[in-house]
Specification:
heterodimer, A: 116 residues, mainly beta, 7-stranded mixed sheet, 4-stranded antiparallel sheet, globular, B: 106 residues
Chain lengths: 116, 106
């Protein structure tokens, strides 16, 4: 079955770089887009960016200067790197699979705290 | 980017009918989707393309609308429906989410 699982450090210091991995199973990264979505504590969902099935990427314009999404299809992994982290980057980070623009499958999320 | 506006919170009694609205800043055709999120969980797809029930979702949930105004209806509401509900559009790029409506039961 389709599964996505996020992994990465739970604590990141301010001004440092966040690195997250989304490991997928049950589908091919060359057939579906995978997106990153984040959620500050008690707040709404923010689309961050996507890795398209063909390897193209798109980013939220508000994060574009700090964000990079890449993948390793041989390992079924999509990566997120975001630099210059601040406290308002604290939240739960999700990866999710796109089917015709809707997000049917989500990872369980990884909580990231930005603090010294 | 397309801004989706939802009312922040609603409170209803079990057995009642509730409608949750989502207004888009520009037309999204019928490409509006609804998610339910319970505390500590990832979002769950309820309705796709405005009015289509996702697999396994109870028929108490329904969706309607097109263009800029959309509604998620739950009838009748059950205690287990306590959650935050988000709309999301995929007609315009980038995809965007509403701020969420927190549904509480009286």
């Amino acid at each position: 079955q389709v599964q996505l699982k996020e992994s990465g450090p739970g604590l990141v210091q301010p001004s440092q770089t966040l690195s997250l991995t989304c490991t997928v199973s049950g589908f091919s990264l060359t057939s579906y887009n995978v997106h990153w979505v984040r959620q500050p504590p008690g707040k709404g969902l923010e689309w961050m960016g996507r890795m398209r099935y063909n390897g193209d990427t798109s980013y939220n314009s508000a994060l574009k200067s700090r964000l990079s999404i890449s993948r390793d299809t041989s390992k079924n992994q999509v990566f997120l790197k975001m630099n210059s982290l601040q406290t308002d980057d604290t939240g739960t980070y999700y990866c999710t699979r796109d089917s015709y623009g809707l997000f049917h499958y989500w990872g369980q999320g990884v909580m990231v705290t930005v603090s010294s | 980017d397309t801004v989706l506006t939802q009312s922040p919170a609603l409170a209803v009694s079990p057995g009642e009918r509730v409608s949750i609205s989502c207004r888009a800043s520009e037309g999204v055709n019928s490409y509006m989707h609804w998610y339910q999120q319970k505390p500590g969980q990832q979002p769950k797809l309820l309705i796709y393309k405005a009015s289509n029930l996702a697999s396994g979702v109870p028929a108490r949930f329904s969706g309607s609308g097109s263009g800029t105004d959309f509604t998620l209806t739950i009838d009748p509401v059950e205690a287990d429906d306590t959650a935050t509900y988000f709309c999301q559009q995929s007609w315009n790029d980038p995809p965007t989410f509403g701020g969420g409506t927190k549904l509480e039961l009286k």
